[in-house]
Amino acid sequence: MRLAAIHDFADRSEGLALPSSPIEGYASIVLYDVIIVGGGPAGLAAALTLGRARRRTLLLDNGPRRNAAAAKIYNFVTRDGTPPDAFRELGRAQLERYPKVETQDARVSTIGGSLGAFRVALVDGPTLTAKRVLLCTGMIDERLPLPGFDAVWGTHAYQCPYCHGWEVQDQRWGFLLLPGQEAHALPFAALLRGWTDRVTGFLAEGAALPDAVRDQLAGLGVQLEGAPARLVTEDGALAAVELSTGARVAIDVLYAHPPQRQVELVRALDPELDEQGYVRVDAATGETSIPGVHAAGDLTTRMQAALLAAASGSRTAAAMNLALAMPTAPEQPSATPPGSARSAAGTAG
């Protein structure tokens, strides 16, 4: 269903009087049980769960796609090898059978209000209200200041071998170790050795490993090199890492974990974050430190994959449905730290 057809909602609005204007007065009327911000795997799965529970749900999505550079989604049962855009199109198509679920390509400008009466304002659109809000905005990957990195990100440079490992197995793999990531060097290198026995680690400027770890990596057959100066490509494919010394190390694939940040909408809402910068949520309900605002998917964890995000969205939506079903749900939040919703500015991611 489309937001433009909002007046058709009068027939199923449980007696609510709709305003005469498609914009005026929306802020004072609770139209939705849940508004979902972000239409990737987490948001789509949440909308499906809520639709099947007959909850009045609006899915909003009009931000940049984090996996836009990836050709396909892998390691997702029944959807292994599906292009990201096709995945979203199929997900939306499957939502059409549920009459209380609406989808809209719209950007969110602000979120305000509180539990039971959140106000979600759209860019160039109305302000809508909902009893609860679900954030599925994902994360923003910072681009590394490494010449050539942007050209291969998502095609020959990846984060996750489970998502992009099988297709490049037994090739020459490298991994980039940034300062602060030293504790992950040994387990990540050992993990990569399951796909190829040709693994090289590159220590970025400022990254250092103790001799004991270096010895363990050598025992695994992992070669260690110094700081990369740039990535060398040939015919659009990654060919080598050029070191600051000028030497070149031939590789076909590079794994890296660039810093991540929350989208502006989440930063402005200012929920409590964990030590790594991910939104802290209640393990059972997915509720943030702001009562009535839930979060699911990549913005809540470093364990990021399409399948995991979808599972998170479905689980959180089920908890939200239960909260909505409880007689005290509009007044009593779940067992999360106290807080109140703030006005927030940003866009859906």
Structure description:
This protein has 349 residues and is of the alpha/beta class. The chain folds into 2 domains: 3-140 and 259-345, FAD/NAD(P)-binding domain (3-Layer(bba) Sandwich); 149-255, FAD/NAD(P)-binding domain (3-Layer(bba) Sandwich), CATH 3.50.50. Helix content is 20%, strand content 23%. The protein contains 7 helices and 18 strands. It has helices at 41-52, 84-95, 149-152, 185-192, 211-219, 264-269, 306-325; strands spanning 32-37, 57-60, 101-104, 108-114, 117-122, 127-135, 140-141, 157-158, 173-177, 199-203, 223-225, 228-234, 237-243, 248-250, 253-255, 260-261, 293-295, 344-345. The strands form 4 sheets. Strands 1, 2, 3, 4, 5, 6, 17 and 18 form an 8-stranded mixed β-sheet that branches. The chain has a 5-stranded parallel β-sheet with strand order 8-15-9-10-11, with helices on one face. A hairpin with a 4-residue loop joins β5 (117-122) and β6 (127-135). It is elongated. The protein starts with 31 loop residues before the first strand and ends with a strand. Keywords: Flavoprotein, Oxidoreductase. Residues 328-349 are annotated as: Disordered. Pfam families: Pyr_redox_2. This is Pyridine nucleotide-disulphide oxidoreductase domain protein.
Mind sketching the topology for me?
Layout: E1 32-37, H1 41-52, E2 57-60, H2 84-95, E3 101-104, E4 108-114, E5 117-122, E6 127-135, E7 140-141, H3 149-152, E8 157-158, E9 173-177, H4 185-192, E10 199-203, H5 211-219, E11 223-225, E12 228-234, E13 237-243, E14 248-250, E15 253-255, E16 260-261, H6 264-269, E17 293-295, H7 306-325, E18 344-345
Parallel strand pairs: 1-2, 1-6, 2-3, 6-17, 8-15, 9-10, 9-15, 10-11
Antiparallel strand pairs: 4-5, 4-18, 5-6, 7-16, 12-13, 13-14
Helix pairs in contact: 1-2, 1-7
Keywords: Flavoprotein, Oxidoreductase
Domain FAD/NAD(P)-binding: 32-313
GO molecular function: oxidoreductase activity
